[in-house]
Write a structure and sequence with these properties.
single chain; mainly alpha; Helix Hairpins
């Protein structure tokens, strides 16, 4: 029983440290998604400090399970958003080395044929805000948006 207390505190501290590392950069918005896991980890630390090891262990396991569930749920939501985004612009992605047609570029950015340079740039910024790799998007989608913008601005 005396060895269990430091083990529970160590597990909770490692979990808290990993969570804090995850808060950096673009992941700051996801804090509310992990709030139940944070609360359970804090409860585990408090119960371990008071000597209630079995309760601390239960809260520690619950915090790990909640964290894993939240992570899996956020990955599924990101994947679903990518699939929806790739279906929404309706144009097939251009092959490497081939020039993108204006129709494909307009479909990707969602602009009309007579769109001004400001409209094209605005559509690009709006779509890139969701497609950027640092914000959960993919590099392929970001490259496709950039190629579409460049194709339309070159005309």
């Amino acid at each position: 029983m005396t060895l269990l207390a430091p083990l529970v505190v160590l597990v909770a501290a490692v979990f808290a440290g990993l969570f804090i590392l995850r808060l950096g950069g673009a992941h700051r918005r996801s804090v509310s998604r992990f709030a139940p896991a944070i609360i359970c980890a804090g409860a585990a630390i408090l119960f371990a400090a008071r000597g209630a090891m079995w309760i601390a262990l239960a809260f520690g396991v619950a915090s790990i399970a909640l964290y894993a569930w939240s992570t899996r749920e956020s990955q599924a939501a990101t994947k679903q958003a990518r699939n929806k985004s790739s279906r929404s612009h309706g144009a097939a992605p251009p092959k490497k080395g081939s020039a993108m047609s204006d129709a494909q570029a307009r479909a990707i950015l969602g602009v009309h044929p007579g769109a001004s340079e400001a409209d094209i740039r605005s559509a690009y910024r709006r779509k890139m805000a969701r497609a950027h790799p640092d914000l959960g998007g993919s590099t392929e989608e970001a490259a496709q948006l950039s190629a579409a913008r460049d194709a339309l601005l070159r005309r």
